[in-house]
Amino acid sequence: MNARPKKSFGQHFLHDKRYIERIVSAISPRPNDFVVEIGPGEGALTWPLLTAAGKLTAIELDTDLIPGLTAHAAEVGELNIIQADVLKVDFTALAHRHGVARLRIAGNLPYYISSPILFHCVEHAAAIEDMHFMLQKEVVDRMAAEPGSKVYGRLSVMLQLACRVEPLFYVPPGAFRPPPKVDSAVVRLIPLPPEQLPDADPERLYAIVKAAFAQRRKTLSNALKQLLDSDAIRSADVDPKARAETLAPADFVRLAKLPV
């Protein structure tokens, strides 16, 4: 395949075999794994993943790419293509429909909607074994950032409360066609077991994290004044004068568990 990348879909096709091999090695697909690839593009990752697992489900929005993928798939293995916006795909239902406990998800994500895709996957984390994504390096840095870092924020907290985040390696622009204007990185996400998940209302937790980071320079007492007063914040062993970027993910969980 030699498709023309579409700017509207944020397409940058991976072509460097060295990095393709490193990504597939990191995923380490096993026979009979239920692998789901988001955005197969020209099939750079599709074919080695399909060869290793024997079958693969790919989610592709661009209808122009599907005929080429389908034509080549017959020579490799069983490829099921879902033509859809990944944000509308119910991963939990997909796992149930195929009678598998958990999915293994991989993909070179469109950078302009990477965060919504990550949050969407996290919503279905109970049905996912692991995720391996190619993302903008800046996003991976934010995902794995620790408290106190300049890039630590809402994405860091919400992902780290749901998954173990493991940055793996960087990928230069030249590995893609066309080369993006940013560096890329591969990251592994492993959903946490149920006993390690936050024991707080998810909507309340999200609201507190979102409000806390909405204006980073504000103290928590100011940022959360519509949700919690200073005394309540203090009762959770959190300093009301602290700023959001200094709090560990567990601190936000304690805030979310306070009585409304």
Structure, explained:
Keywords: Cytoplasm, Methyltransferase, RNA-binding, rRNA processing, S-adenosyl-L-methionine, Transferase. It is found in: Cytoplasm. This is Ribosomal RNA small subunit methyltransferase A. InterPro entries: KsgA/Erm (IPR001737), rRNA_Ade_diMease-like_C (IPR023165), rRNA_Ade_Mease_Trfase_CS (IPR020596), rRNA_Ade_methylase_Trfase_N (IPR020598), rRNA_adenine_dimethylase (IPR011530), SAM-dependent_MTases_sf (IPR029063). It comes from Dyella tabacisoli. There is one protein chain. This protein is α/β, with parallel strands linked by helices and 260 residues long. The chain has two domains: 7-194, Rossmann fold (3-Layer(aba) Sandwich); 202-256, rRNA adenine dimethylase, C-terminal domain (Helicase, Ruva Protein, domain 3). The protein is 35% helix and 20% strand. It has eleven helices and nine strands. It has helices at 17-27, 46-53, 66-73, 91-97, 114-123, 137-144, 154-160, 202-214, 220-223, 230-235, 249-256; strands at residues 13-14, 35-38, 55-60, 78-83, 103-108, 128-136, 163-171, 176-177, 184-191. The strands form two sheets. It has a seven-stranded mixed β-sheet, sandwiched between helices. α5 links the parallel β5 and β6. The radius of gyration is 20 Å and the shape is elongated. The N and C termini lie far apart (56 Å). The model is unreliable at 5-9 (pLDDT under 50).
